Amino acid sequence: LMPEKTNTRYEEFDYPSIQKKVAELTDKQGKTIYANGEASAKKQATQMQQMIDRKVDVILLDAVDSHAIAGMVEKAKEAGIPVIAYDRLAEGPIDGYVSFDNELVGEVQGRSLLEALGSDIDTSDKIVMINGSPSDPNAGQFKAGAMSELNGKVTLAKTYDVDGWKPETAQKDMAEAISAIGKGNIKAVYSANDAMAGAAIQAMEDAGMSKIPPITGQDAELSAVQRIVSGEQYMSVYKPYPDEAEAAAEMAVTKIQGKGIQFDALATDSVDSPTNKDIPAQLVQVVALTKDNIKSTVVKDGIYTVKDICTSEYKSACAAAGLQ
Fold first, then answer.
1. Are 280 and 97 in contact (CB under 8 A)?
2. DSSP calls for 149-171
3. Please, is 121 exposed, middle or buried when counting C-beta atoms within 10 Å of its C-beta (0-12, 13-18, 19+)?
4. Other beta carbons within 10 Å of 292
5. Quick check: 190 and 110 in contact, CB under 8 A?
6. 83-86 and 269-271 as β-strands: parallel, antiparallel, unpaired?
7. Which candidate, 55, 53, 99, 49, places its Cα nearest to that of 69?
């Protein structure tokens, strides 16, 4: 069960990788059933009920709203169906959790922003902070990680929490920030993900900002990688989706097979949710993606080819960045 389609990764990378790994681990005997909540907690709850009614063996859940779904997790538990939280930590009696180290994501973003500002950084430098959705527990962890780097080093002139991670909301928030702070006074923008970074850049361009200040992102979406090549976006966080997806598929298959020791070995960490403690977890590492390491990350891992990135619009920028 995936949460939304605004971020292209779930349909393009996560689910296909999970499907492929399940087939591989089960000699093509394992069957995967897919549904996307499309950012609606109500729709996802209906989808999860359908999975329970179908008596599936295990549910991999990437929650739209981690709190709202807790009752459905309880229902699955009562039906004897284990639930593994994927990417976002759902509340309720979760059996396992596979995600990236979310505080580290925020730290990487915050650190990169400070690096972009350089040695002449000043505590009075005004930063706009565009965070993810309050209903997504990951968003709070990204924010906490970023704040651990930014606190006391810059001034957070405007901070926004964007409901549902909606780019159109982020664009309005950025426009409001520009109006309040002044387009010449914004030194950098913290954006929690790439879709919102693209929207914030659009707001800055619409406001007539000839020089876009450094802006962060996350998810290494193709459009963001292209913006990084062209210099519009400073960085993104590359999260090796195949690693996360394959770990989740392995945990799910192993859980069904009842191999407890192996299941524990696949979960070397543990996490707490607001409702449950010591949930077995596997936390996958992340990488700061900049113009300098596109070739050694997303290209090397087969996420995109140079041809995907270097369309006619980006040919000269690609050449300058050594992407050919």
1. yes
2. HHTTTSEEEEEEE-GGG-HHHHH
3. middle
4. 13
5. yes
6. unpaired
7. 49
Q: What is the rounded distance in angstroms from the CA atom of residue 272 to the CA atom of residue 270?
A: 7
Distances (CA, A) of 120 to 6, 107, 125, 186, 234: 37, 20, 10, 15, 18
Residues 6+ apart with CB under 8 A from 131: 139, 142, 143, 159, 160, 161, 162, 190, 192
Q: Which residues pair with 287 in a beta bridge?
A: 238
pTM: 0.82
Q: What is the 3-state secondary structure (H, E, C) of 234-267?
A: CCEEECCHHHHHHHHHHHHHHHHCCCHHHHHHCC
Map tokens 């992102």 to a residue.
217
The beta-strand segments (E) located in 24-68 are 59-61
Q: What are the start-end ranges of the H helices in 182-314? A: 194-206, 222-230, 241-256, 260-265, 306-309
Tokens encoding 18: 């999970």
Place of tokens 């349909």: 11
Which of 188, 110, 192, 191 is closest to 145 using CA atoms?
A: 110
d(CA 252, CA 247): 9
Reported as a single tens digit per residue, the pLDDT across 260-317 is: 645 666 888 889 999 999 999 999 889 999 999 999 999 998 899 999 999 999 999 9
User: 89: closest CA among 139, 43, 19, 162?
Assistant: 139
CA 106 → CA 68, 234, 265, distances in Å?
Answer: 25, 15, 27
Residues 215-237: pLDDT tens digits? 999 999 999 999 999 999 999 99
Q: Which two tokens stand for residue 71?
A: 């009752």
Structure token digits, residue 6:
């605004």
51 contacts 252 by C-beta, under 8 angstroms: no
